[in-house]
Each structure stands twice: as C-alpha cells, then as structure tokens.
C-alpha cells in the first residue's frame, strides 16, 4: 500500500486509540457532563475525517465501509458544530469507531 495512505491509516488508528483512552468505562451520562472529553473526541473525529478525506482523494476504492460518511461527519463537526449532539458523538464512538478500527487494522496488516 502507498506510504501516504499508510500514514493516514495510522493517524486514524491513533485517533481511535486516543478516543478509547478518553472513554474507558465512561457512561453516556458522565460523557454528557464532561466538556473536555467531548471536545477531545470531536477533535479526534475531525482528524479521522480529514485523514479519510486524504485517503479517498488518493484511492477512492479503499476498502473502508462508510468512508464518505466519515468525511461528512468531520465536516458537520467543523461547519455545523451546533447540530452535533452528545448522542451523535456517543453513537459514533460506541458503534462505528470499533468497526473502523478493525478495518484500518486489517488494511495496515495486509
């Protein structure tokens, strides 16, 4: 795989691991009251989205499900920040990032 794409995949994986370190055993209720954790997670999702955007520009056929939606979420956080709810962030972190983590790890080990 291309070196630049590998670098961006590692950026995605590192951002996911950082989010995991922030969340730990935190519940949605605790998350909702922790502005620092929310902002740190938003920032890492922005990084994930930007890295995915760069990957798609270089290889639009990359085998990552929901790749375009990942970029769209990044754009929504940046440009529509007032429309991003805690529940949306929580769903991304708990439901979608584990899938992305597996896909990225798989691509890096090919």
**Assembly level:** single chain
Classify the beta-strand content into a percent band. Answer: under 5%
Structural class: mainly alpha
- The total count of helices amounts to 5
Determine the mean pLDDT.
94
Distance between the termini: 8 Å
- Count all strands and give the number: 0
Succession of helices and strands: HHHHH
Note poorly predicted spans.
none
Could you describe the largest sheet, including whether it forms a barrel?
A: none
Shape: globular
Mind explaining what this structure looks like?
By secondary structure, this protein is mostly helical. Helices cover 78% and strands 0% of the residues. It has 5 helices and no strands. Helix 1 runs antiparallel to helix 3 (35-58) and helix 1 crosses helix 5 (86-108).
């Amino acid at each position: 795989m291309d070196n630049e794409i590998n670098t961006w995949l590692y950026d995605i994986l590192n951002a996911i691991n950082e989010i995991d370190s922030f969340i730990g055993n935190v519940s949605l209720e605790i998350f909702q009251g922790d502005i620092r954790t929310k902002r740190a997670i938003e920032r890492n999702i922005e990084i994930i989205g930007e890295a995915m955007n760069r990957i798609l520009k270089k290889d639009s056929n990359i085998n990552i499900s929901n790749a375009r939606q990942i970029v769209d979420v990044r754009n929504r956080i940046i440009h529509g920040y007032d429309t991003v709810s805690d529940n949306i962030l929580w769903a991304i972190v708990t439901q979608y990032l584990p899938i992305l983590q597996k896909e990225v790890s798989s691509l890096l080990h090919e």
